[in-house]
UniProtKB/TrEMBL annotation:
Name of encoding gene: Tvp23b
Protein name: Golgi apparatus membrane protein TVP23 homolog
Positions of transmembrane segments: 31-50, 56-76, 123-144, 150-169
Keyword annotations: Membrane, Transmembrane, Transmembrane helix
Mode of membrane association: Multi-pass membrane protein
Amino acid sequence: QDSSDDIEDVSLFDADDDVSRRSKKSRIRHPVASFFHLFFRVSAIVVYLLCELLTSSFIACMVTIILLLSCDFWAVKNVTGRLMVGLRWWNQVDDDGRSHWVFEARKVSAQGGKTSSEAESRIFWLGLITCPMIWVIFAFSALFSFKVKWLAVVVMGVVLQGANLYGYIRCKVGSRKNLTSMATNYLGKQFLRQ
């Protein structure tokens, strides 16, 4: 007699299970993903800042920075966004050759709780927003100090990290119409408060 259809997995200690679920909300559940989410981003910035002190070879610095930025782009787009906040985006090409951008967000579980922790979410969004802003500052610095050779590297930083930022904002907020209406509503509320 096959009784495997009648068997259901049930937690024996429901109270302990609920307590451990609540404590996991504030803990980092994916420490490796959280580390690499920040590692490539911060490493590219540190190499950019210290490059002229460490070596006189512009090519070696440029290649190192672009490799770090490329690893960051891939890791954030394909791994850390999915694990840390449940968001992902990609480009899909139909059989007709038309390109479609797809922005996805993880559905909320049936119990009504999020599956990602607040700490991971903060780390993800802080790294995702802060680093492109730093690259924009570097872009203005390179432009106004007439360091044209560094401008190409900085533009790569802005483009790669800005693309991830844009993609994940679209995943979080929704369609472009929602994004513009949300920005308009926010600015309107700020104007009325002042």
